[in-house]
Design brief:
This protein is α/β, with parallel strands linked by helices. It is 39% helix and 14% strand.
Length: 335
């Protein structure tokens, strides 16, 4: 079965809430899923390891309770993000817990490993892998991923540099499986645009930082609300891999956001004993300019759904700048 077949009729919007490091916790995941979109969190947000087992149990129980109370609008499936990078010394244990709890969807990052995909497939789960270019996209599918998250320019946290138009277009020339598109998405019209370009889902994270359910400090949420796209800095200094960060948080950490050093990719680590050097430098995407207030996740999804529906209605009408005669002329010539 294709992931899209499994999800048919189960979502309010074609939207996956991206897993936010440190920030995504069960309260946020449950709020997202019970609002009709796929909620997610990184497995490493649960520390110590035992907490992941507890959190997975909690998420499943709370979603089941919602479904019993609302049989007409059951919750969407949830996803767990696994960091597959070689430095993640918890990968095998986290994977085992995901298998134990039969997590419906796994999002893998920073590496593609066939044994991870096989373990998830063993109980009927699905795997989508996030990528920034065609090299990594092809590698992920070759190693058994079911779908792709295309992380384009403007996405929050670790992000690519390619235009979403180019990234989706090239991917669809060789891959017809499930595709989610990430990069500067914080409006219902942007979700619709992702579909129009050829993606099956939009993939959105930054807007969910500014919600009460998110485990982010209030200064972080306020900075999201007060910032615009011009306040986003693309740098590899923070983790060794290029990503987008809030300029004011970089300045507050004592760095010059306009003159940053180059990071060292070899220093990237996801070991359980790692120390986060830049713990107060905060990731965000270029979509921050469209985020104007802190609101509950359910209210945010309500807003997105209304914007998405209005966008669909608007596109159903004839564009005032298009001459309909061209279409009629072409039909007449063909006949």
């Amino acid at each position: 079965m294709d992931l899209r077949d499994m999800l048919k009729g189960r979502l309010r919007l074609p939207l996956i809430a991206s897993p936010l490091f440190i920030i995504s916790v069960p309260d946020l995941v449950v709020a997202q899923c019970t609002s009709g979109i796929i909620g997610s969190m990184p497995s490493l947000n649960a520390r110590p390891l035992e907490q992941l087992d507890e959190w997975l149990t909690e998420i499943k129980e709370r979603l089941a309770a919602h479904d019993r109370a609302h049989p007409d609008r059951p919750s969407a499936p949830f996803a767990i993000n696994l960091i597959v990078h070689k430095s993640n010394d918890r990968l095998e244990q986290d994977l085992a817990l995901c298998v134990k709890h039969k997590v419906p969807l796994i999002i893998t990052s920073l590496g593609a490993r066939p044994e991870v995909n096989e373990a998830i497939h063993s109980y009927g789960g699905f795997v989508i892998h996030d990528v920034i270019n065609q090299f990594f996209a092809r590698k992920a599918i070759e190693k058994g991923a079911d779908g792709l998250v295309l992380v384009a320019a403007g996405a929050g946290g670790h992000a690519g540099a390619q235009s979403p138009f180019a990234l989706v277009q090239e991917t669809r020339q060789w891959f017809d499986g499930p595709v989610a598109l990430s990069g500067s998405i914080a409006h219902g019209r942007s979700i619709l645009a992702a579909e129009a370009m050829g993606a099956d889902f939009a993939y959105m994270g930054t807007a969910f930082i500014a919600t009460p359910e998110a485990r982010a400090v209030e200064d972080y949420k306020r900075m999201i609300v007060e910032s615009g796209a011009g306040d986003i800095v693309y740098t590899n200094l923070i983790t060794g891999v290029h990503g987008n960060y809030l300029k004011p948080s970089i300045a507050r950490a004592g760095l010059d956001p306009d003159n940053l050093d180059t990071g060292d990719k070899s220093q990237m680590t996801f070991a359980s004993d790692r120390k986060k050097r830049w713990k107060d430098i905060w990731g965000a995407g270029q979509s921050v300019g469209g985020i104007h207030e802190v609101m509950p996740a359910a209210a945010l999804v309500d807003r997105l759904a209304a914007e998405y529906a209005e966008g669909r209605r608007a596109l159903g009408a004839h564009s005032p700048i298009v001459n309909p005669g061209w279409g009629q002329g072409q039909r007449a010539a063909a006949e």
